[in-house]
Amino acid sequence: MRIAHVSDSHLDNPEGVATSVGTTVALLRASGHRVVLHCPGPLFRRRRRPGEVPSLAMPTRPYRLALPRPPHAAVDVVHVHTTGPLGVAGLRWAAARGVPTVLTWHTDLVAYAAHYPEIPIGAAYAGLRLGLRWRARDLWALRRPGPDRQTRLAELGQCLLAHTSVLIAPSAKTATMMAAMAGRTPIVVLPTPTAVPHPDADDRRRLRARLGIPTDAPVLLAVGRATPEKNPELLLAAFGQVRRTLPTARLVLLGARRNRLAIRRVAHRYGVAGALHLLRPVPHDRVGAHYRAADVLAFTSTTDTQGLVLSEAEAYGLPVAMVDTALAQRQGTGTTRPVAEPTAAAYGALLTRLLTERELRANVIQDGRAAVTAWSGERYLAELVRLYEALPPAEATA
């Protein structure tokens, strides 16, 4: 099968969309499908790989802005992962040629719009390119938080899905969230899988030694941005509660590129600055060492559509503590992760229990590993290919 994947997130970006796209493309190629990934690449041609599009780095952001160049070869399916210039170009190209289109909804744009000004700007661009007859007052409404912005973003979502044959939701939470926008577009829940890692007992010792963490100290790990939509203040407040019971506990925040000064100020306020390790992002293949060096994954976000770090941590044998009940159910086995109320006292108590209660830890770890094994890459690939094959054939792919 000939498949064009389109993503505005370049694969070197250490974040969930890039990880999901890279995993999907690699699985499809390994099974013999002809896949071209259209994504941002270097500005100069001699350094670009097939499918990569010229792009420029965005100041203060880990992203690259690519030229809106659509696929140019005949394909059977266009699979779009983002709604930036490249993603919109892919949707328009496929619609003009009658090629069936799959859209994966990786990001809660409505929730993120309150934190990232580029999202309303991108929404205005996408709406105009996709034919929404927005007037000046509609574009103005995108600038300010409130019901008018929510309405415009919902209109854009409906327009995007009108250009889509099937919507993939990476969780049941996302499927529920998108149901009102989908109209007649079918929604399929299909999370990105996580591979079972190879054992490496020395990772824990080496990384702890490098960070200056004693071998017997309880370690909480959070992976991802430390920006407001991830709720780092709740995590720091709960960590303060943990330290009252476990005074040697440490917290590692891996992936903090922005908001670092604010995080340190909050940590000082809760009296945990001396036990905080604030680390910048690392390539995805180096994250595993941090999972091995930790004892619990702490996840305080309520804006994620899947939370890939949840199943990644479980693959490494880490119990997960979270506050988002909508993401608590694991794919594959239907078991649920431990969830607490989003308060410092309740969440801190859950973290402490997972650090200290051996039977609880063992049960949570066992359930997590079983879910990772059940929702394998092979199972995901089979369902994805089945979805592609059920799409109506392209009217024209020239």
Structure characterization notes:
With 398 residues, the protein is an alpha/beta fold. It has two domains: 2-193 and 377-390, Rossmann fold (3-Layer(aba) Sandwich), CATH 3.40.50; 202-374, Rossmann fold, CATH 3.40.50. 43% of the residues lie in helices and 15% in strands. The protein is built from 15 helices and 13 strands. The strands form two sheets. The chain has an eight-stranded mixed β-sheet, sandwiched between helices. Strands 11-10-9-12-13 form a five-stranded parallel β-sheet, with helices on both faces. Strand 7 (166-169), helix 7 and strand 8 form a beta-alpha-beta unit. Helix 4 (118-129) packs across helix 6 (147-162) and helix 9 (232-245) packs across helix 13 (344-356). It is globular, with a radius of gyration of 21 Å. The two termini are 16 Å apart. The mean pLDDT is 92.
Strand content: 5-15%
- What percentage of residues falls in helices of 4 or more residues? 40-55%
Q: How would a crystallographer describe the biggest sheet?
A: 8 strands, mixed
| Order of secondary-structure elements | EHEEEEHEHHHHEHEHEHEHEHEHEHHH
- What top-tier CATH class of the largest domain fits best? Alpha Beta
Task: Compute the separation of the termini in Å.
Answer: 16 Å
